[in-house]
Amino acid sequence: MSAWGTAAGAFVGTLVLTTALRAAAELRLTRMDLPFLLGSAVTANRTRAKAVGYLLHFLNGEAFAFAYYAVFLAIGTAGWWLGALFGLLHGLFAGTALVSVLLPLVHPRMGSPLTSAPEVALLEPPGFLMLHYGLGTPLVTVAAHIGYGALVGGFTALGA
């Protein structure tokens, strides 16, 4: 196992995950734009929000990969299949708690059940499994996270 392998896997995995989510949006399988969700928490400028969001998404990809790495070290093994399992759990956590419950509570430009009628939110809250962004969103999100995890686990196991 290697931290360098994890860093490389995080970069490649995040690139694949981001590309898959963007392609799914272009193919109208989802309306979710994860970099925009992240970036709009920092700025109201829509163009700048996308740029900042991509940077934040890649930084998050590295952070999550090193969380995977810590578990790999704790259990003494790593591999693409274990990474894929972590990716499945990561994708389910993102859709059920992280983005759908926690993000609306802290995102300054996202609506929530607590938003009053006169307030105007820049973003619609994702909802459970992010279903407010389309019926294909849960499947696309979980599949992309499984791919991310498999790449992180595989690169971590191969790194020397």
TrEMBL record:
Query: Keywords, A to Z?
Result: Membrane, Transmembrane, Transmembrane helix
Provide the transmembrane region boundaries.
63-82, 89-110, 130-158
Is Membrane tagged as a keyword? yes
User: Which top-rank group of organisms is this from?
Assistant: Bacteria
- Name-wise, this protein is Integral membrane protein
